[in-house]
Amino acid sequence: MASVRFVAIGDSFTEGVGDELPDGHVRGWADLVAEGWARSSGEPVEYANLAIRGKLVWPIIEQQLEPALALKPTHLSFNGGGNDMLRPRTSISHVVDAFEVVLRRCDEEGVQLIGLSGANPSGQLPLSRLIQRRGDLLSAAVAQRLAERPDVITAWNWPDRELSTPPYWSEDRLHMNARGHHRVAARVLSALGEQPPSSWWSLPEITDARTARGLSYYREHVGPWVRRRLTGTSSGDGRAAKFGEWIVVEP
């Protein structure tokens, strides 16, 4: 059994959407953390990822938290609330309460919590001022709550102005690209006391990325999102966790 058993729960941010590999699979910051952790420590890391895109924060708790703890991890990462903040009537306390539950259950099970805030996509999105304001409030509220627990490992990505600029984001403007996911992974590894590759903080810009603009952006990305809201469906419906059981990541 590896000394580090790292499980990640959450939504598309943690699943890795936006960091698509040539074979169609998504990678993302959590996969990169497992890889970087094994490399930095020189020891194998057991890794699982139960995150599924499109999930609101309380379905993450209800569907992923207990299965993740049942794996008997040493470390559990949690981020949620990004999808909630895109809904018109979600309160900040509704999301912060979910972080409280994860913290309590990790305490009860003796698991080290890694708490993250998501990156800030607002500069590229419609209704950017509203999303910025709500994200600022949520990020501050979660940081304030976890500040009372210095033993919790934290990686705050929302305030990172560099990460919020367009070169770190995918075509849909809502999910980070490979560049963004590497930067988040570097921050998490640093918070863990591990040494990420220095290049992960700012990989070369992705120059061949296709960018949808104007009406094509709304047709390709905003329209499908609106249709899912109207029909009560989610991009994660019918999807299973990509790593629902332990895999071993070698140095």
Give a verbal description of the structure.
The chain is an alpha/beta fold and 251 residues long. The protein has one domain: Rossmann fold, CATH 3.40.50. The chain is 42% helix and 13% strand. The chain has eight helices and six strands; from the N terminus they run E-H-H-E-H-E-H-H-E-H-E-H-H-E. It has helices spanning 12-15, 29-41, 57-70, 82-85, 92-109, 128-147, 178-191, 214-231; strands at residues 4-9, 45-49, 75-78, 112-117, 153-156, 243-249. Strands 5-4-3-1-2-6 form a six-stranded mixed sheet, sandwiched between helices. Strand 4, helix 6 and strand 5 form a beta-alpha-beta unit. Helix 2 crosses helix 7, helix 3 (57-70) packs parallel to helix 5 (92-109) and helix 5 (92-109) runs parallel beside helix 6 (128-147). It is globular and about 50 Å long. The chain starts with a strand and ends with a strand. The model has no long low-confidence stretch (mean pLDDT 90). Keywords: Hydrolase. GO terms for molecular function: hydrolase activity. Residues 8-182 form the SGNH hydrolase-type esterase domain.
